[in-house]
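Notes, Module 5: Reading structure tokens.

Key idea: the token line is not a picture. It is a compressed description, and you learn to read it the same way you learned to read a sequence, by spotting repeated patterns. We will look at two proteins. The first is printed below with its tokens.
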Amino acid sequence: MADDDRSAVSALAEFVPRLARVIAVALQSDPSVALTIRQYRTLERLLAGPLRTSELASFSDVSQPTATTVISSLEARDLVVRTPDPDDGRASLLEITTLGRTTFESAHHRVLDRLAVITEDLDDQAAAALWEMVPVLLAGMDRIRDIPHDFERK
């Protein structure tokens, strides 16, 4: 890892918090949509199909109680429902509702509109370079899941 202020690590440290803030503002910009980033990501994951709370917690790299809190807030707004798990009568599955899909789609469009402002000055070469970085950065994010939370690089 480079120690100078122009390293990739420094670039991410500068960029990611600001990007997260742009997304958070977009998700809160319409009171009828108003989602936290965790709620948004949970709805996004449920678009693919029903999941158990433990699966959502694992995918999101959060504790089961944290996932339960997010789910409860989404249930209270009728954005998700619990259904019996056909494979385990003691468990339930979480499913996104029609209102949940509509809310997610509205939120997603708001996020994309905000991100479009950020990227509007990119030329084709810069946009292609950004796309090339996506799989590299996603692979790095996947690796981080296997590292203990108290990890510190020596």
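Here is the second protein, with the sequence above and the tokens below, as before.
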Amino acid sequence: MSWRLHIRFFRKSGIVLLSAVSLFLLAGLCLAGEKEEQEPYYSASKDGWWWYETEPKKEENKPEEKPPEGQPAAKKLPSLSDYTIEDIWNMHPDNFQALLTEFMKKAVMNPTVETVREYYVMQDIARRKSLAFANVAATVMQTNPELTTASAYPITTPGQNARVRLQSGEIGTKIRASKDEFAILYFFSPTCEYCKAQSNILAFFTDKYGWQVKPINIEQDPNLAARFNVHTVPYLLLIYKYKRDYIPISAGVIALSEMEKKLYRGIRLLSGEITPEEFSLYEFQRGGPSDPEALLRKNER
């Protein structure tokens, strides 16, 4: 082939090649346009196809360090430097008591001058707090005398003597006025030495008040003793004329003064003058600080 034929061949080949390249570039632009409208195949294309990053290692949750087996966990010890005086002074009593105990344990565990001093500082704060309360309480009692029991239970000797006279007078009057409505069942045994002592006391009682006392020998009448649940002698039982109810006065020897008090209360309870809540109330104390239901009655009015 001559050189002219070669030139013609290359010219035609070049045109074909140039046309092919042009078509390839045009197809690439079209594809690129379509890719912009669609979701990219590789979201990290800017980093290149062969780029990769090492995945960060996940932090493992390390288990809490535990003390050696058989040993308790270390406990934080308290320190006065962690608190102000105002913090401790205004602390709830439960929290203060717990903190005081911790300071005591700290001092016992490590008895140094500083740890023991801290404990006694806490004790001093407690003492001063108690003193403050006592002073305020004294102020309240003096400015609000109705809250005290001084009027019902005087501490002076003349006042105490007056209270005893009021009680004795009320007891004697009530027992004398009740002799026709109440009586005493006296359970005894002829072989009981304690019963002999109680018989002498009862003889003095009947001479003083004129009451009816019915002796019952439990050896001759065990059924009656069982009926009233009598297991020991001497045994005194108060009965009421208008009710089947009764109330024990004593099991064993009882002195006259104590017997009078129990008879007085038993009479008032069985006759309905008082409730069990008022069992120890004297009539001259009604409405005062010794009357448990005085505030309720006052509120009802």
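Summary for the second protein:
- Residues 14-18 have pLDDT under 50 and may be disordered.
- Strands lie at 182-188, 213-217, 235-240, 246-251.
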